């Protein structure tokens, strides 16, 4: 099956000469949740804006459901919903009217039942008659999502959707995201909350400096790049590692009270058995031992730092 979004050799250079995207290529499969991670200025918003038809590329192509986003703008925009990073709302309009109007802008016939469902799913039903200027920042963020869902899109882009949203609202939003995915909607999100990407995404992409550093299934990414850490608490702290422990590249933490050993959990031999024997031979007494699996955030930071 062809990908629902296909990006090929995408370049965007602004009038100032700044190159926001440098030959980006990626395919997005229908029905998946793709989390796009990257620091500020990495090119995430530019990439989304081009796919959504808001910004024109300098070169390269983007196909959405087989249609070119430049040549067939109407066909592609009709199946895309976008939740922008900025809180752009009509301050003197009611929640119901602005969401209903957004549906009409996409050429869809009025469907009060659908609008009601969207508002209820986003816990906005009791605010339907409120003007937007009366809402909190978190509620306005929900209205943006409601507007993006008003025309029943097949693809939903969420650009930092939970920025400035409290924990409870954030959890509600992710429940909606999961429900949408179960209904076949393809979801692409950018987020600074890496733990969210780790929890809900099927695949993770890392972008930095206008280039895709990596796109991989989350489980494969964690298995390939995720490392484990053995944390050894010593009964008495040391200031210098004994000479016999040098081959293990240990790190000292907690003022010499803890040894840190990084190892590949997927490898056939971890070296832990020989390390513990070497520690005993060096005369160090162990108080406690624990392990820690590297997180998606650890992997993200390592990838970005390598290409910085």
Keywords:
single chain, about 300 residues, alpha/beta, Rossmann fold, Alpha-Beta Plaits, 2 domains, six-stranded mixed beta sheet, four-stranded antiparallel beta sheet, 14 strands, elongated
Overview of the molecule:
By secondary structure, the protein is an alpha/beta fold. It contains ten helices and 14 strands. A six-stranded mixed beta sheet has the order 6-7-8-3-9-10, with helices on both faces. Helix 3 runs parallel beside helix 5. It is elongated and about 80 Å long. The mean pLDDT is 87.
Q: Strand-residue fraction?
A: 25-35%
Q: By helix and strand content, what is the structural category?
A: alpha/beta
Shape field? elongated
- The succession of helices and strands, N to C, reads EEEHEEHEHHHEHEHEEHEEEHEH
Q: Name the poorly predicted regions.
A: none
The main β sheet shows up as: 6 strands, mixed
Total helical segments: 10
Helicity, as a percent range: 25-40%
Task: Report the span from N to C terminus.
Answer: 36 Å
Q: Compute the number of structural domains.
A: 2
Computed over alpha carbons, the radius of gyration is 24 Å
By CATH's scheme, which homologous superfamily of the largest domain applies?
A: P-loop containing nucleotide triphosphate hydrolases
Architecture of the largest domain in CATH? 3-Layer(aba) Sandwich
> What do we call the CATH topology of the largest domain?
Rossmann fold
Average predicted confidence as pLDDT: 87
Number of E-type strands: 14
Strand order of the largest sheet: 6-7-8-3-9-10
CATH class category label of the largest domain: Alpha Beta
Family: Belongs to the ABC transporter superfamily.
Keywords: ATP-binding, Nucleotide-binding, Transport
Domain ABC transporter: 5-234
Protein name: ABC transporter ATP-binding protein
